[in-house]
Design brief:
Elements (H helix, E strand, L loop, with lengths): L1 H13 L6 H14 L5 H13 L4 H16 L9 H4 L11 H11 L2 H10 L11 H12 L1 H13 L5 H30 L1 H10 L12 H19 L6 E4 L3 E2 L1 H9 L10 E4 L5 E7 L5 H13 L6 E7 L3 E3 L1 H4 L20 H12 L7 E6 L12 H10 L2 E6 L13 H5 L4 E4 L3 H11 L1
Parallel strand pairs: 4-5, 4-7, 7-8, 8-9
Antiparallel strand pairs: 1-3, 2-3, 5-6
Length: about 450
Amino acid sequence: MEYIILDLARTLRQAGHPISSTEIQDCLKAVGQLRGAGSRSTLCTLLNATLLKAEWGRDYLLRLLDLYFEAQESDTVTAPVSSVLGTGMGSVGAGEASEQLVDAVRRGQPERLAALIRALDLQPDLLSEDDESTLARLREATGWFKVARGLDGDLREGRLTPDAYAQGRSLMEEWTRLLLQEMDRLRVKTLGMTHLVEILRREEPRHVAFREADARMLDRMKAEVEKLARKLAVRRGRRWKPGLRGRIDPRRVTRKAMQTGGVPLHLCQSGRKLVKPDLWLLCDVSNSVRQFSYFMLLLVHTIQNRFSHIRSFLFVDRLLEVTEAFREDWEGLDELSGHSVSGFSHYGEVLRAFSRMADGKLGADTTLLILGDARNNWNRMDGSELLGDLRRQARAVYWLNPMKADEWGRDDCVMARYAASCTDVFSCSNLEELEQVLFRIL
């Protein structure tokens, strides 16, 4: 068991999780207390409590264990499904597999659906070079297309109510999700631990690109943003002040020593000062960057007590100040309106309105953060000349772009024009990059 725990910790480290030796020792001690008792769920709860320490960690580790043993074994033993399907019915129960799957969909039984798909014991020969073709093969092999056509036909002929059809389609989406998991299982079975590490990195919320996150991943990312906010809320500034603890201050020690004949009888220490700068936030909330801006706004809303004053603005093609909304219990972007007329970003129009509004109000303690992909939708006016004026008024102007840096010059992205007038620009395509940037500039 110790070897398995050490190997799991090594795999998690390769996937980007910062797991220390002390945490591994704590995990080994805790597992030793189980003494062979406890379920897989209990083990994952323990691993999460000692290694990952994340709200989403238990489900993540359950997935890791399932795939880990696939990578270790050359042959897969199909999990028993008699508890779901009954006994004495063979590998997929009585009747054809597709009939059993149809029945599970119509009855709204996701657990039975999962057991049926796993009981089919799909083989690696269904894999192809790309995921889309592999998914199509898996759907064909499990009868997904047949069931989907059956649902559509039943709805047209009145054998299903709209509500029952919606429930059926929801189960079909669950079916697809299960097939994607089967795809990962088959690839791990074929490629081993290398592919398992790739899957773990793909499902770790700090590494997932904002614009690629699904609903389940967004919930995980929200938990990580709240954790990041707690770190930033207690972060001290770069200036130092006299204190009872901290690093030795050579200058003050020397001055004190002059009073005692040059003998340093008293050591003087200093610690970092708590600073509360002004922060102005200008966020593009068009569809291409909406999720990135949402998480940044959520983060700033959570740590607003760290700043002496925060002003927040949203835009698509119109500027909207939402500072007052941030002082209340902020629920999200959907409750706000007035920042979009056409639905397409117009940075030139927005920067002109912002520059006119901010003229003379930015100070030497003000940091301006601009969040957006700089895609100006081919508008002739981009407002790049106005950023220089804003930069001269403020302490710093930083631009955070959720696109990869090598994409900044493509199509209608004019990031290069804005970069020349900013203090610095950063690519923040995921939470890991965002955390690194914020610890650098705030």
